[in-house]
Write a structure and sequence with these properties.
Keywords: Cell projection, Cilium, Flagellum, Methyltransferase, Transferase. GO terms for molecular function: methyltransferase activity. It comes from Massilia phyllostachyos. This is Flagellin lysine-N-methylase. With 412 residues, this protein is mainly alpha-helical. The chain folds into two domains: 157 residues, no CATH class; 242 residues, no CATH class. 51% of the residues lie in helices and 11% in strands. The strands form four sheets. Strands 2-4-3 form a three-stranded antiparallel beta sheet. Strands 8-7-10 form a three-stranded mixed beta sheet. It has a two-stranded antiparallel sheet with strand order 1-9. β5 and β6 form a beta hairpin. α15 crosses α16. The chain is globular, with a radius of gyration of 22 Å.
């Protein structure tokens, strides 16, 4: 059988957990062949449509659908899911029919790459994993050395490697310097996560301002000056009197959370989302919680959260690092501060869900529940490309997008 989608092998920069990851197949608790819209690129769609394989022809004939609105070569069609658990009809006994009866090159781009995300920044190839995959989440969030960076060989389809070119005004080296600085800032030892996020916010705000005023020429001086200030401890001292605002945290992030449609497409996803809503005081009939019950539940949960996280001490740090590395932070938005707003909104939403898991009058959640909550959060929010824009607009419309307001969100 001819190769449909050729691949190339690159030496890539990876967090160590990526090199350890292996799909666990039928043992997966929330597999990627259930609960998704499986998109098909044009080449794959046509190959499936023309297939005469006796095991696949019938299911291809009944399950393939053209994408009529906003179609492109990369999103040309989709597989119509079955009812109930919304499973892919090409699956048989936990195995993919395409993989079994055709070959790996005939998988769609979506099925071949997930949960891997590859990118090239100034010629440097990197790869990270989407934490909406349960095994990827477990590997990334729990291992102490998950974010030690290594070089390894990866095999990718060139069409699925996101490329961020430096452009005429910014050298690839400078892009790397900024990214490495941000990642190193988030790994400062002896500094709490909320403080590191606060420092990152100051840096991103200044980076946006420098970029508008002086362009790339002003960035090296900013990196030097900010390094000096961070090492002096002056900025951390200024954060010492900051107190958490649990009421605002609860109201703002619960509003963002409840504004997301589709409460979960599988029974497992719905169970986690329903538990979060119930623990935050939502009425089982209306799904609405009073402000008083919401704030009380969130405050109780967020105060118990550090105890729960003691069993998974790297979980939140590694979540933030993965978001930054995976999405080329701070170059994944219009400017660095916009990128920072998106990161903080995701962090706040996740913390709301984790706090809710600790809010019930019951024993604290175990490590498996904490990891599962992160994974379900990523499945619910992270694959909706429009949601980041919606949350940023909501923060701006509410006047919550300035650093002084955001500081009240960070500490808990």
């Amino acid at each position: 059988m001819a190769i449909l989608h050729p691949t190339r092998t690159h030496t890539a920069l990876l967090p160590r957990y990526v090199s350890r990851f292996r799909c666990i197949g039928s043992a997966c608790t929330d597999n990627c062949c259930t609960g998704w819209t499986v998109t098909l690129d044009k080449k794959t769609f046509n190959a499936y449509r023309q297939s005469r394989h006796p095991e696949l022809q019938e299911v291809f004939g009944t399950s393939l659908r053209r994408q009529r609105s906003g179609a492109s070569d990369s999103f040309y069609g989709r597989i119509e899911m079955t009812e109930g658990e919304i499973a892919c009809p090409i699956m048989r006994d936990g195995l993919c029919g395409v993989h079994k009866h055709m070959d790996e090159s005939h998988l769609s781009h979506t099925c071949f790459t997930y949960p891997r995300v590859s990118a090239s920044l100034g010629g440097q190839v990197q790869q990270a994993l989407q934490l909406s995959c349960p095994e990827a989440a477990r590997q990334a969030l729990l291992a102490p050395d998950a974010f030690d960076f290594v070089e390894d060989q990866i095999t990718v389809r060139s069409a699925e490697v996101r490329r961020l070119d430096a452009g005429a005004s910014v050298s690839p080296e400078l892009l790397h310097d900024v990214r490495i600085f941000c990642l190193q800032l988030m790994r400062l030892e002896g500094v709490e996560l909320w403080q590191r996020l606060a420092l990152l916010g100051v840096f991103c705000e200044q980076l946006s301002q420098v970029g508008k005023a002086a362009g790339a020429a002003g960035i090296p001086a900013l990196l030097d000056e900010f390094t000096r200030l961070a090492e002096s401890g002056a900025m951390l001292d200024a954060l010492g009197d900051l107190r958490p605002n649990h009421e605002d945290q609860a109201i703002v992030f619960a509003t963002l959370w409840s504004g997301k449609e589709a409460p979960g497409r599988t029974a497992r996803q719905r169970a986690v989302i329903d538990a979060v809503a119930s623990n935050l005081g939502a009425d089982p009939e209306t799904g609405v919680a009073s402000i008083e019950s919401l704030v009380a539940a969130y405050t109780r949960g967020v105060e118990r959260l550090p105890q729960a996280l003691a069993a998974a001490p790297h979980l939140l740090d590694h979540y933030v690092l993965n978001e930054m590395f995976l999405h080329l932070f701070p170059f994944d938005a219009a400017d660095a501060y916009e990128s920072y707003l998106q990161l903080v909104s995701r962090y706040g939403l996740l913390r709301l869900m984790l706090a809710a898991q600790c809010a019930a009058d019951a024993p604290l959640p175990g490590v498996d529940t904490l990891v599962e909550t992160v994974q379900i959060f990523c499945r619910r929010f992270r694959h909706d490309q429009g949601f980041a824009k919606q949350t940023n607009e909501a923060l701006r419309n509410g006047g919550w997008d300035s650093l002084d307001k955001l500081y009240g969100f960070l500490r808990y």
